[in-house]
From TrEMBL:
<comment type="similarity">
    <text>Belongs to the Dus family. DusA subfamily.</text>
</comment>
<feature type="binding site">
    <location>
        <begin position="207"/>
        <end position="209"/>
    </location>
    <ligand>
        <name>FMN</name>
    </ligand>
</feature>
<feature type="site" description="Interacts with tRNA; defines subfamily-specific binding signature">
    <location>
        <position position="179"/>
    </location>
</feature>
<feature type="binding site">
    <location>
        <position position="167"/>
    </location>
    <ligand>
        <name>FMN</name>
    </ligand>
</feature>
<feature type="site" description="Interacts with tRNA; defines subfamily-specific binding signature">
    <location>
        <position position="294"/>
    </location>
</feature>
<keyword id="KW-0547">Nucleotide-binding</keyword>
<feature type="binding site">
    <location>
        <position position="66"/>
    </location>
    <ligand>
        <name>FMN</name>
    </ligand>
</feature>
<feature type="binding site">
    <location>
        <begin position="13"/>
        <end position="15"/>
    </location>
    <ligand>
        <name>FMN</name>
    </ligand>
</feature>
<dbReference type="InterPro" id="IPR013785">
    <property type="entry name" value="Aldolase_TIM"/>
</dbReference>
<dbReference type="GO" id="GO:0000049">
    <property type="term" value="F:tRNA binding"/>
</dbReference>
<keyword id="KW-0819">tRNA processing</keyword>
<feature type="binding site">
    <location>
        <position position="135"/>
    </location>
    <ligand>
        <name>FMN</name>
    </ligand>
</feature>
<keyword id="KW-0694">RNA-binding</keyword>
<dbReference type="GO" id="GO:0010181">
    <property type="term" value="F:FMN binding"/>
</dbReference>
<dbReference type="InterPro" id="IPR035587">
    <property type="entry name" value="DUS-like_FMN-bd"/>
</dbReference>
<feature type="active site" description="Proton donor">
    <location>
        <position position="96"/>
    </location>
</feature>
<keyword id="KW-0285">Flavoprotein</keyword>
Amino acid sequence: MTKQDDWRLSVAPMMDWTDRHCRYFHRLLSRKARLYTEMVTTGALLHGDVPRHLDFDAAEHPVALQLGGSEPADLAKCAKLGEDWGYDEINLNCGCPSERVQRGAFGACLMAEPQLVADCVKAMVDAVNVPVTVKHRIGIDKGESYEFVRDFVGTVSEAGCNVFMVHARNAWLKGLSPKENREVPPLRYEFVHRLKREFPQLVIGINGGITTDEQVREQLQALDGVMVGREAYHHPWWLASWDAYYGEPREVTRAGVEKQMAEYMARERQAHGTPWTSIARHMLGLWNGQPGARKWRQVWSDHKLRDSDPRDVMALAEEALARAAEML
């Protein structure tokens, strides 16, 4: 059963960023926030290394698998794979504007074919018992019609989707890079608020341009959830306060989280040969805004230390942090 609180706060799926190591780090900061995988294409699962794409730590729950694809049968198979691997939600990407994704005929360009999206959702809903959700934009190219996104949500919801995470910008399919598509098309929060008023029975969350607690509180007065992307990645300590939105504030410290990450890096290195550098990159923003943060980052970014035990690297980083803070 869908509970609206389940989507109150979440970290957006971000390619090359929200891998399983990043999600483990974020979970140390917040017990309650919903976490999403990077987008995984149906082709990668049906013809590639499934464990590499789907493996995750049990600590990450609640965690959602985001799929990219446009063939109902393929999406149904991959949704079932995701459920079998233990994911709490299957999310369909209808928001990515990159040309590579467009060539695969999925992502944001799917918004032009709401009935196809409905068919995809129906196939997945029939295949799994976990929620099937959709992340999408408010429109494509330079169209400014609210009716476009209203009709999209209406059609797809009839297929059994009850949760929509809405990036409150259009996706311009030509002429803008993915980065520019996160910044250039104007934000229209009012479109998302209208969706909630017209579809009160649905869970409607918002994504795009939200960087402060004040903005989160304002959006939660009108909507069921807020999804944060790059701000959560670059300033991860913000997540440590998110559980208060669920009435369950969490007491954690930056040093405590860093210690747990160093232990995790050591385990991953021993079990899988994972270089600690590929994990540490996700936590480089942990001390942002604090005295000595730059010196601390320099230690964790020093590839000359790549053969060192991550717990030894942590000791060096903490020493650099303390020394820089004293000087300041």
